[in-house]
Amino acid sequence: MRCGAGIDARMVDELAINIDPIQAGGRLTADAMKAVVAYGDGYSVCDNCRKPNRLDYISKPPIAEFHKDLAAWLNMDTARVVPGARRGFQAVAHTYVHKGDPVLLTSLSHYTEFLAIEEADGIACEIPADEQNIVTADAAAVKIEEVKKQHGRLPVLAFIDHVDYQYGNIHDVQAIAKVAHQYDIPLLYNGAYTVGILPVDGKNLCADFVVGSGHKSMAAPAPSGVLAATVERAKEVFRTTAITGDVTGRKFGIKEPELMGCTLMGVTLVGMMASFPHIKERVKHFGRELENAGTVLDALRSIQGTSVLSEYPRKHTLTRIDTTASLDAVAQTHKKRGFFFSGALGEKGVTGIIPGATRVWKYNTYGITRSQARYVAQVFVDIALENGLKVA
Amino acid sequence: MRCGAGIDARMVDELAINIDPIQAGGRLTADAMKAVVAYGDGYSVCDNCRKPNRLDYISKPPIAEFHKDLAAWLNMDTARVVPGARRGFQAVAHTYVHKGDPVLLTSLSHYTEFLAIEEADGIACEIPADEQNIVTADAAAVKIEEVKKQHGRLPVLAFIDHVDYQYGNIHDVQAIAKVAHQYDIPLLYNGAYTVGILPVDGKNLCADFVVGSGHKSMAAPAPSGVLAATVERAKEVFRTTAITGDVTGRKFGIKEPELMGCTLMGVTLVGMMASFPHIKERVKHFGRELENAGTVLDALRSIQGTSVLSEYPRKHTLTRIDTTASLDAVAQTHKKRGFFFSGALGEKGVTGIIPGATRVWKYNTYGITRSQARYVAQVFVDIALENGLKVA
Predict the structure, then answer these.
(1) How many angstroms away from the CA of A385 is the closest CA of chain B?
(2) At B17, is the secondary structure helix, strand, or coil?
(3) B260: which chain A residues are within 8 Å (Cβ-Cβ)?
(4) Alpha-carbon distance A301 to A308, whole Å?
(5) Cβ atoms of residues A360 and A327 within 8 Å
(6) How many other CB atoms sit within 10 Å of the CB of residue A276?
């Protein structure tokens, strides 16, 4: 089936259990699918835009209310929607970082945080994770002092991922924020793997900013995300335009330059809004997700030679695993080489693992049902047994 | 009907002829609607992302091919998709504009161009439009000299809207570009009302950059757009990342910092791709659109006291009209005041005019059929006659 010239309709989640590490939290809800159809046209949300002509003031559809609810849900003072978490990083970096300013992030930070720093002409200073791949407040304190010595000035901003994309480990943002605040360094909480997945309380985390990703973890179309701030920081990042036309004397109302005016319209915003009640509910049941993740991981760990690279026991469903001494040993002599594994998974209706990967790989069981988790666990064991591996 | 808690399904284009000035060119095609359903999940386009792991290298769905086709269609060397035209302005402004640098735009420029300049700490310098609301190359030359005198340096960049959002007038970008190039000023062609509407030949226009809007004029979901460049300028704006992790030594491949890495995914990109063949075809038939616009405008002009504020005869379907001496005269004594007009239009199945507007207002007949154009023309005349206005 095609949905346009040369574009095959995608049927991945319809045909298989998908444990792709980045797709799990972004699958649209049924309501988001309906919203996407009803609000397909971008300017559809502008039907009832009236003065002061800004997206977050529109009351029909209830965009203004959504903005308030979003901020309250994250326990922050103000929220804006942005075209992806990265555009939230960019807005904050551009506000605080000037040429040559050091900026804190971590040795496990996502590349988009580096790009936000690069784009603002700052210097990226990584807080090293420890041997267990955890970033600690102590390491943050040491790094701040090192930066001060090396660059002669303090970092102007810190990006801390609550759950990193490499291991899915949880880092103590609250403790790191307390250290950062002792040096008056504002902290951006990167919740790309948490906002929409588990409960996030920005004030309790001592975050100055909370960033979330719509298409990664809020069951919203791409590109979408949220940037929330405390009332003090909102004044800085969400300041309104001050530029004027030198000939016309034009001013541009209350548009916000760091957001480039209105941000998300149509499918992205209304999709996010339609999923929101479901998101609010699902974060309350993260325990079930961990239980499913545990079932799958127990099966993988039972395959002799397999080890977990993520922290263990798991606190998040995104997991990094090392099968060099198990699946990769099979791949060495298998006629399909490393593709035997993704091939076997595909035949059994499981998808989302990079084809050919048999050494170090990631998966995410978020959103699958209890019986799907049991099935996936059995599939891993079956593939191991079928290929002569020992299972405990 | 609802498409989520508290969100009514939108049925505007389904129930009426919509002549909204900004919605006309962004209505999704049927193929885009299908694509939006099939590729609802953001990371859906990443199923087959392989090294070097960048959006514009993905071949299934044919994203790489689309990027090449898009550049060729605009007669530019390289194209990238961006989350709205404004994010194209931002990327270019950030590359060339530093603190205090003067930047050219026009007295009819869109606010997002001002925000891009403000966000890059530049100074906005408007080329004044003439009495007919046309920006000329002569005015550009004069302005450049004025800027040089006033600021002691030349503008570093020029944003020129081919068709402005206020009057829908066409400005001679090619001639202005030639003047700008005499001073080595790169020119960004803002095609928010042209790319996807009428044929655009970037090289022939002497543009260094061509920016288009997906949701305004390319029948694509929001936020989406295109930023195309010449090969020389592409090296500057689409330069790849150079930042490294100070602890890990990590580098980030060929990601482009001005784009913040990958840009559009899922609905926005695949919607744009699905509409693309239809867009390529429709720009060849802009003459029909002008004919329809003429039919509607003739009817409006026949209402005594009505004048056209846009250039006349019309070269674009977006039109600004002054009905102060006709419809607004009726509004003075009508029990519904100015709302009589939008109310009457609504009853007759025409929508898209700001409710209450009876003095100066805009409309856009783009995309309506010949018989719809005749109907809308008759509706305007009927409303005038029903309210005692004279019609020639």
Answers:
(1) 28
(2) strand
(3) 84, 86-87, 89-90, 112, 115-116, 119
(4) 7
(5) no
(6) 25
Nearest-neighbour CA in chain B from A392: distance (Å): 33
- Which positions in chain A touch B61 (Cβ < 8 Å)? 6-8, 10
What DSSP element (H or E) covers B277?
A: helix B267-282
Cα(A170)–Cα(A353) distance, integer angstroms: 22
Both tokens of residue B66?
């689309």
**Is B37's CB within 8 Å of A36's CB?**
yes
Which residues in A lie closer than 8 A to residue B23 (C-beta atoms)?
41, 43-44, 46
Half-sphere exposure in the Cβ direction for B302 (13 Å, CA)? 17
d(CA A118, CA B322): 49
Does the domain at residues B17-23+285-386 carry the CATH identifier 3.90.1150.10? yes
Q: Is the dihedral of CA A268, A273, A274, A276 positive or negative?
A: positive
Domain A42-265 adopts which CATH fold? Aspartate Aminotransferase; domain 2 (3.40.640)
Q: Do the Cβ atoms of B170 and B162 come closer than 8 Å?
A: yes
Instruction: Tell whether B46 is within 8 A of chain A (Cβ).
Output: yes
Q: Residue B197 and residue B188: Cα distance in Å, rounded?
A: 18
Facing B221 at nearest CB: one of A42, A260, A275: A42
Q: Are A176 and A154 in contact (CB under 8 A)?
A: no
**Spatial CA neighbour of A162 closest among A391, A316, A341:** A316
The answer to whether B207 faces chain A, any CB pair under 8 Å, is: no
ipTM of the complex: 0.97
Contact flag B31-A3 (C-beta cutoff 8 Å): yes
The ranges assigned to domains in chain A are 17-23+284-386, 42-265
Q: Is A254 on the interface with B (CB under 8 A)?
A: no
Tens-digit pLDDT string for chain B (392 aa): 788 889 999 999 999 999 999 999 999 999 999 999 999 999 999 999 999 999 999 999 999 999 999 999 999 999 999 999 999 999 999 999 999 999 999 999 999 999 999 999 999 999 999 999 999 999 999 999 999 999 999 999 999 999 999 999 999 999 999 999 999 999 999 999 999 999 999 999 999 999 999 999 999 999 999 999 999 999 999 999 999 999 999 999 999 999 999 999 999 999 999 999 999 999 999 999 999 999 999 999 999 999 999 999 999 999 999 999 999 999 999 999 999 999 999 999 999 999 999 999 999 999 999 999 999 999 999 999 999 999 99
Q: What are phi and psi of B229, to 5 degrees?
A: -145, 160
C-alpha span between A236 and A256 (Å, rounded): 10
Q: Which residues of chain A have a CB within 8 Å of the CB of B37? A: 3, 33, 36-37
Instruction: Identify the H or E element spanning B105.
Output: strand B102-106
Among B residues 338-377, those touching chain A with beta carbons less than 8 Å apart:
none
Give the CA distances from residue B195 to residues A166, A225, A363, B225, B226, in Å, rounded to whole numbers and listed in that order. Answer: 40, 27, 41, 10, 9
Q: Which residues of B touch A128 (CB under 8 A)?
A: 247
Cα gap A379→A299, rounded to integer Å: 9
**Among candidates B42, B298, B35, B53, which has minimal Cα distance to A224?**
B42
Dihedral pair phi/psi, residue A134, rounded to 5°: -120, 135
CB-nearest partner of A124 from B3, B20, B243: B243
Q: Tell me, what DSSP letter sits at residue A94?
A: H
Of the candidates B31, B84, B36, which has an alpha carbon nearest to the alpha carbon of residue B224? B84
A17-23+284-386 maps to which CATH number?
Answer: 3.90.1150.10
Please name the residues between 263 and 292 in chain A that touch chain B, using a CB distance below 8 Å: 263-268, 270-271, 273-277
A-chain residue closest to B265, CA distance: A222
